[in-house]
Amino acid sequence: ELQLVESGGGLVQPGGSLRLACKASGFRFSSQWMKWVRQAPGKGLEWVANINPDGSRRYHVDSVNGRFFVSRDNAENSLYLQMNILSAEDTALYYCTNERCDFWGQGTMVTVSS
Amino acid sequence: QAVVTQEPSLTVSPGGTVTLTCGSSAGAVTSDRFPYWFQQKPGQAPRTLIYDTYKKYSWTPARFSGSLQGGKFVLTLSGAQPEDEADYYCFLSYDGPWVFGGGTRLTVL
Questions:
Q1: For B14, phi and psi rounded to 5 degrees?
Q2: What is the Cα–Cα distance from B68 to A114, expressed in whole angstroms?
Q3: Gap between the terminal Cα atoms of chain B
Q4: Chain centroid to CA A86: how far?
Q5: Residue B34 touches chain A, beta carbons under 8 Å
Q6: Does A75 score more than 90 pLDDT?
Q7: Which of A37, A59, A100 lies closest to B96 in CB terms?
Q8: For B61-86, what is the mean pLDDT?
């Protein structure tokens, strides 16, 4: 069964850091682009980042460029999002999804507050 | 990055037909944008309805269809059901980065 399980969210102070993880199973993780998508409370979906199968190409939305960094470990079937210099505007439910977006995790909540 | 625009809200009668549109500030939406439509209900993760403009997954109800019309990406719902009440998002590729539309809240009333 194909599954994506996010983890690593929590409450963090402004200026702090978090590392999100997404563990994949049930499909050839190493052959797919992967994406991070977030949704602030009561707001719409926002694409955050994506990364190609071998990790050599990655893209981030302008609002997180220089603060967030997407990576992957194909040996561990895992996708990561390193988030630095967090602000209240980064408060959201963070989802990972696969290349065709046909499978989504349940999301992990990040709350940035003092 | 480009801005993707959708109608903020639409209403359709049960059994009726409604068209949701998705436009891009970067020009006409084409199949090269690999367009997607997602449906999201309260408290749930998004669910993909349409990918690559018109392709459907096994779970996509037949009453939903995707197309390109007049430079926009279009989702047509024919024969709306009460369970179709949800938020709908389009999603476009820009040669690496992707952008979501702001979403359309569809009411079936």
A1: -55, 130
A2: 46
A3: 36
A4: 14
A5: no
A6: yes
A7: A59
A8: 98
Q: Is B38 near chain A, with CB under 8 Å?
A: yes
Mutation target for A interface from B41, B48, B50, B93: give the one with most A CBs within 10 A: B48
Report CB contact under 8 Å: B46, A59: no
Residue A106 has pLDDT above 90, yes or no: yes
Average pLDDT over residues A32-49: 98
Contact between residue B107 and residue B14 where contact means Cβ atoms under 8 Å apart: no
Q: Are B108 and B10 in contact (CB under 8 A)?
A: no
In one-letter notation, the amino acid at residue B21 is: T
| CA distances for A91 relative to A53, A108, B89, angstroms | 28, 11, 20
- Asked if pLDDT for residue B37 goes beyond 90, the answer is yes
Q: Which of left, alpha, beta for B88 (phi over 0: left; psi -120 to 50: alpha)?
A: beta
**What local confidence, expressed as pLDDT, does residue A1 receive?**
85
Give the mean model confidence (pLDDT) for residues A29-57. Answer: 97
Q: Is the pLDDT of residue A46 over 90?
A: yes
Conformational region of residue B96, where left means phi above 0, alpha means psi within -120 to 50, and beta covers everything else: left
Average pLDDT, chain A: 97
pLDDT of residue B1: 84
